[in-house]
Write a structure and sequence with these properties.
The protein is α+β, with helices and mostly antiparallel strands. Helices cover about 50% and strands about 15% of the residues. The longest helix is centred in the first third of the chain and has 25 residues, at about 200-225. InterPro entries: ARM-like, ARM-type_fold, ARM_LIN, ARM_LIN_2nd, LIN_N, WD40/YVTN_repeat-like_dom_sf, WD40_repeat_dom_sf, WD40_rpt. This is E3 ubiquitin-protein ligase LIN-1. Pfam families: ARM_LIN, ARM_LIN_2nd, ARM_LIN_C, WD40. Keywords: WD repeat.
Length: about 1300
């Protein structure tokens, strides 16, 4: 909620009266409850008042009548509105079940606005107003439930929040009724004459009254003799309420009716003094009345103990419960129950005989005396239990302020025994290092029994704790920690059976839940949550009790958001659904708990079965695993930072299996979401706890451990080897045995994960030993690879095999393919950028340990012989693209070791898979796949297998010829093929269209290039689009519009592996792939529009619209070269710049020494003196195009001015664009701008034409494809068959 200081309600001015510390007697509290209930009855009985009240509350909400119950600002108002509506409907309901349901719904809805921050603002409405409305209508709900004391409780809370609203709007006249009885005697002494018209004074005294009386009301609810139990309460309203409540039908029990008759005398007291004037004179009558009521309640409870045990508020007298629980004979320290008490109470108790909260039986003639002392003993017990050495729960300083000590001598009726009137000396008992919470009575010799003293002490402890629960403000004050004491008491009660103990347990739980849901004091909520967490952690059955009592997750979430970290334990133990956890929006709080130092938590909590960080860890596991990919990713983004990971790694406690399982599950998700987590985890995560999970008998533990290690091992090879060595140090034999069993007994997926880990660990062992592990692991992988029945396990086994001998990057991406492609001799940045998803500058590819590792692991797999290649051959033929691709990678790296081995195995392998490998050579496949197929053929046909090359089909030979410009291996294989069987090449000139993509919204496609394996297109409107090409499908993956005018050209910039874009807006922009998104990292301004660009090292070359050639160095300073020439196009290759000029000449610039040379002079014929529109380099040939296409080897251009070849496409037609590949030259001529002419490079014959459908505005050749962009915004591509 938005938090702003309140403007409409001034802060209260605290009042201090002389008797604030005095005890309020029970009759005063009854009178207060009576008046409040009478006033509320009158409001509900008057229909006009009821309607007016509703309008006052809802008029400010300004919301539509629609149900909406999410935790947002609007939903807070919705819940308040519908809470009021349900309360009104319940009042008019004739069906009992309908009334109960509507009251429950109203209470749940009203609790949401009631939990707001009092000092905040919600949708422009002060929270204090919303909270006041909520508590007022909660009192209406309780009134309809006939719970009169709770009516008063909620009403006083509303007064505490905003007394002015209550007195003037919601309950006018209440001040006039309360003032004479409860306020005037105190106010007149302090302020003299009271001014009823002074709103500020009225607010102060009403707030004081609510603060003064509310704790005592709560206290007497618990400590009373039973007259006020929920559901059978004494009617505190006068007779008039019976006839005026027409819509609120009330039923009274026999006990309530009798008690009502006895209480009529106190319905209209004149003043506070009249009520409490002479306690000693009235005590006998009151005690007799209370005894009679107590007897009836006991009799009634025996008949309905089950119903009473399940009530949410059981207010039986504490002393009665204690006295009824005493057995007939004392239990000695050496009895069978003594061990339990010794464990739950400190050693200082051992000096006494341990009783079990027992009491004796008195004769019939003593009942009257007991009744006389009953009321007085209540006062005595309160004073003694609250008078600590330094301060009491209410700050009471002197007992004799309200009662002489001697009045209570002999009134100790905890054991229904009479003691002589001798002074009581307050002492303390030790709870190890903690201060006393009760007293010990020092009695004369003959009357001081250990059992009696201990019983008094135990009673004092329990009563003290219950009292502090009632006066919740005191729970958070000082350094007192009630957690251990309350847990001890609860454990004792829990060990007993019977209604009396259930009632006491319910009292404890009720008051804790009230404090958690209602208190605004952080310390109070923290203490209450800590107590409840401690109880619940070791008594899981309590969860059902607090759920039944209506513990709201929202209250716990609110407490957690207020830094009450212990609340997360309760949230976890309640076990809410993932959807409920998500709705609470707890993740930021959970992260804070995890990142908080353990020293934050008290010593007692560290010994619990569950700590706040551990509970947070397990809830975080749910948040990152239980939802869809987008939701999980959103949660993972919040926990993937080093700070949070560091906190997560510190949470699990030693030997705590469940906590390490949760941690492993979270880390696996984090590493998959953000590969950067992997490096941090590998450096700072301990290995031993996760290794121990592999040895566990729990299936979940072993499964998550296998996932953890398999995911963590996806790192550069040297680092992965180091991790394997750490695992090995934890127990090589144990690890091997555990993994061996997992490969035999686990589910298919985890069987493969175990096999992967086992095989890699076995590489570190001596090759001559433990072969059974190696064979079992390798066979598990090959068996799954050959089985096509389960696509998932086949794909997993193929993936494992493909990278088993290679490496990964730190991001977890497999880089074995890139490592193998480098072995083929792929060095050109242009060709590398045709390959997807690899950064060839990544440090993982520079790892010197890859080759040695590959050799070791390959030897162990090749030891199985030809079955390896039969399994790989099945995988290569798989219809699943990822399976066949991974099997090609595995075949390639195994071939790197196979070439060193015996000819027999290599020859056998060649027989099995060579024919299948050939299919990966053909055009149309990814360049990396064609290169790996070439590598396989090269390795598998080496030695005696060279003759196998003669069996290669013409299509394979043609593919090798087209790859000869990319890798030297293809060129070597062609030489061998020509040696064994010379062949006249037959070139297929048929082209097939494989691609059409784009739209008309951005204008003409003015530039094309491949970068990072994706196709980039620049447009006339200044936008750049990124396309992912898969087969014949192009998918738009990103679009930017940073240029203000047309993007005219692209170029690659090797430093940083960047992309350059030139534009007519007089800028060159530098782009880089960051997190798989293209981002502009630099803008280079120029003075003219850019027509074309190229680069070499850190130097950028650009031609401008005015035909100037600019050189931009690393400092971004530009200068002109070839100043005497007007340059139209450029090409950079092998450290030289070739510039085609407007006078049809070609200029050469040596970049390293800036030496300039003219290699082609201008044409002497005026007809051919046309500008060179395009320059292309293929191998060692240089081609240029103007009216004609000319070409020669570069060194021959310098020797002779005549070209070796010359082609005239169309007479008088200028050539606009040109691309040269192995077999073809593609031309776009001015006379036919919408088509491409196809010419054979070797014979200079025109063999065909490709139609683009509209004017061609850009041209690109890549991986045997020819692509063009058109003025209509389309991209079309063809490939020769």
């Amino acid at each position: 909620m938005s938090e702003y200081p309140m403007a409409s309600i001034p802060p209260p001015s605290p009042l201090h009266f002389s008797d604030e510390n005095q005890k309020l007697d029970i009759d005063t509290i009854k009178s207060l409850v009576t008046i409040i209930n009478q006033h509320m009855h009158a409001i509900l009985e008057n229909t006009e008042s009821q309607i007016a009240l509703k309008l006052k509350c809802t008029s400010k909400l300004k919301i539509q009548s629609q149900e909406f119950f999410e935790f947002s600002e609007h939903s807070v108002l919705s819940n308040l509105y519908w809470g009021i509506e349900n309360a009104e409907s319940a009042a008019q309901a004739s069906c009992l079940e309908e009334r109960i349901m509507k009251l429950e719904n109203s209470e749940k809805m009203l609790q949401i606005p009631a939990s707001l921050d009092e000092n905040g603002v919600t949708l422009g409405i002060c929270n204090s107003y919303l909270i006041c409305c909520s508590y007022f209508y909660l009192s209406v709900v309780e009134l309809l439930r006939e719970n009169e004391w709770q009516v008063a409780m909620h009403f006083l809370q509303a007064v505490l929040i905003s007394p002015r609203i209550i007195c003037t709007e919601f309950a006018p006249g209440i001040f006039q009724r309360l003032f004479p009885l409860f306020i005037r005697p105190k106010v007149e002494k302090l302020l003299g004459d009271f001014d009823y018209d002074d709103d500020g004074m009225v607010d102060d005294v009403m707030r004081w009254m609510a603060k003064r009386y509310k704790p005592w009301l709560m206290y007497y609810q618990i400590m009373s003799t039973g007259d006020f139990r929920q559901g059978n309460q004494v009617s505190l309203a006068d007779d008039q309420s019976h006839c005026t409540m027409k819509r609120v039908q009330r039923s009274r029990s026999i006990e309530s009716q009798n008690s009502h008759q006895n209480l009529e005398e106190m319905q209209h007291p004149n003043s506070q003094e009249n009520i409490t004037n002479d306690v000693s004179e009235e005590s006998a009558n009151i005690s007799t009345l209370m005894l009679e009521s107590h007897k009836k309640i006991v009799a009634y409870s025996e008949k309905s103990c089950i119903r009473e045990a399940t009530r949410s508020s059981n207010i039986k007298c504490l002393k009665d419960i204690l006295t009824e629980s005493e057995p007939d004979s004392p239990i000695s320290l050496h009895s069978h129950n003594s061990s339990f008490v010794e464990e739950t109470f400190p050693q200082s108790y051992a000096e006494y005989s341990i009783t079990s909260l027992r009491t004796g039986r008195n004769d019939a003639e003593d009942h009257k005396a007991e009744a006389r002392d009953q009321y007085r003993s209540l006062s005595w017990s309160f004073s003694t239990s609250f008078c600590d050495t330094n301060k009491s729960a209410l700050g009471i300083r002197k007992m004799d302020q309200y009662t002489p000590l001697d009045d209570y001598i002999g009134s100790i009726s905890l054991k229904n025994c009479q003691f002589p009137n001798v002074p009581l000396n307050q002492t303390s008992f030790s709870r190890t290092t903690k201060k006393s919470l009760s007293f010990r009575a020092t009695l004369p010799e003959g009357h001081s029994h250990p059992e009696e003293n201990l019983f008094i002490e135990q009673s004092g402890v329990l009563e003290k704790l219950i009292s502090n629960l009632c006066f919740t403000e005191e729970l958070g004050n000082g350094d007192k920690d009630y957690t251990v004491e309350m847990k001890t008491i609860y454990d004792i009660l829990n060990s007993k059976s019977g209604l009396k103990y259930s009632l006491l347990k319910d009292i404890i739980l009720d008051q804790l839940l009230i404090a958690i849901s209602n208190s605004k004091e952080e310390k109070v909520v923290r203490t209450s949550v800590a107590i409840l967490s401690t109880i619940v952690t070791e008594n899981r059955s309590v969860i059902d009790d607090i759920k039944r009592k209506g513990l709201q997750l929202y209250d716990l979430a609110t407490a957690l958001k207020r830094n009450v970290h212990e609340a997360v334990i309760l949230i976890y133990l309640i076990n809410p659904s993932p959807a409920e956890i998500k709705t609470l929006e707890l993740l930021p709080c959970l992260v804070e708990v995890v990142c908080t130092s353990k020293s934050y938590y008290k010593v007692e909590l560290t010994s619990l079965l569950l700590t706040p960080p551990a509970a947070s860890l397990m809830i975080i596991e749910v948040l990152v695993t239980a939802f869809d990919y987008e939701t999980n990713s959103m949660h993972l983004a919040a926990i993937s930072s080093p700070r949070v990971l560091s906190g997560l790694l510190k949470v699990p406690r030693k030997d705590n299996l469940e906590e390490f399982i949760s941690l492993a599950a979270i880390i696996v998700k984090c590493m998959r979401f953000d590969g950067k987590c992997r490096k941090y985890v590998s450096e700072f995560s301990p290995v031993a706890p996760f290794v121990s999970l592999l040895w566990s008998n729990q299936k979940r533990a072993t499964s998550i451990a296998l996932e953890f290690f398999n995911e963590l091992l996806r790192m550069p090879r040297s680092s992965a080897t180091g991790l394997l060595e750490q695992i090995q140090k934890q127990g090589s034999i144990n690890n091997m045995c555990a993994l061996f069993l997992l490969t035999q007994n686990s589910e298919p997926e985890y069987r493969l994960l175990a096999a992967n880990l086992l095989l890699q660990l076995q590489v570190l062992e001596d090759t001559s030993s433990k072969s059974i592990y190696r064979e079992e692991a390798a066979e598990a992988l090959l068996e799954s690879l050959a089985c096509e029945d389960c696509a998932a396990t086949q794909a997993l086994s193929a993936f494992i095999l493909s990278n088993l001998g290679g490496t990964y990057s730190w991001t977890g991406e497999p880089y074995t393919m890139a490592w193998l492609v480098k072995k083929t001799g792929l060095t050109s940045a242009y060709h590398r950028n045709l390959i997807k998803n690899y950064d060839f500058l990544d440090q993982s590819l520079q790892d010197a340990g890859i080759d040695s590792w590959c050799s070791k692991i390959a030897q162990r797999i090749l030891h199985l012989g030809t079955p390896v290649f039969h399994a790989l051959n099945k995988g290569l033929k798989s219809k699943l693209k990822r399976v066949s691709r991974d099997c090609l990678i595995a075949t390639a790296w195994l071939g790197c070791e196979l070439v060193k081995g015996p000819d027999e195995l290599r020859h056998a392998a060649c027989e099995v898979i060579l024919q299948t490998i050939e299919q990966y050579m053909h055009p149309g496949l990814e360049l990396e796949e064609r290169l790996l197929a070439c590598l396989c053929i090269y390795n598998y046909t080496s030695g005696k297998g060279m003759k196998k090359i003669i069996n290669l089909s013409e299509g394979v030979r043609e593919s090798l010829r087209r790859l000869s410009n990319v890798t030297w291996m293809a060129e070597e294989l062609l030489k061998v093929a020509d040696y064994f069987q010379p062949n006249k090449w037959r070139i297929s000139c048929v082209h097939s269209q494989i691609l059409e993509a784009g739209n008309k919204s951005s204008g003409a496609v003015t530039a094309l290039i491949y970068y990072k394996g994706q196709l980039y297109s620049g447009y006339a409107d200044g936008s750049i689009k990124v396309w992912d090409i898969k087969g014949q499908t192009a998918t738009l993956v990103q679009e930017m519009k940073d240029h203000k005018k047309a993007v005219t050209c692209f170029a690659l910039y090797e430093p940083g592996n960047c992309l350059l874009s030139g534009s007519a807006d007089k800028t060159i922009k530098m782009w880089q792939m960051l997190h798989r998104n293209l981002e502009c990292i630099e803008v280079i301004p120029t003075k003219e529009s850019i027509k074309s660009i190229d680069s070499w090292g850190e130097v950028i070359f650009a031609t401008t619209q005015n035909h100037k050639l600019k050189v931009i160095d690393a400092s971004r300073k530009a200068k002109d070269i070839f100043k005497n020439k007007r340059v139209k196009c450029i090409k950079v290759s092998q450290g030289k710049v070739y510039a085609g000029c407007m006078d049809s000449s070609i200029q050469e610039l040596m970049i390293i020494n800036n030496r300039q040379q003219e290699i082609k002079a201008p044409s002497k014929s005026w007809m051919q003196n046309k500008p060179i529109s395009s320059v292309a380099i293929y191998k060692d040939w240089l081609y240029c195009a103007s009216l004609v296409v000319e070409g020669s080897k570069i060194k021959d251009w310098r020797k002779s001015s005549k070209p070796q070849i010359s082609m005239v496409p169309e007479k008088g037609a200028s050539i606009v664009a040109m691309e040269v590949v192995e077999d073809f030259i593609y031309l776009n001529c001015g006379t036919s701008m919408s088509s491409l002419q196809i010419w054979l490079r070797g014979t200079q014959h025109k063999v065909g034409r490709l139609s683009a459908g509209s004017k061609i505005t850009s041209l690109l050749s890549a991986n045997d494809m020819i692509l063009c962009g058109t003025e209509k915004g389309l991209i079309k591509g063809w490939i020769p068959l």
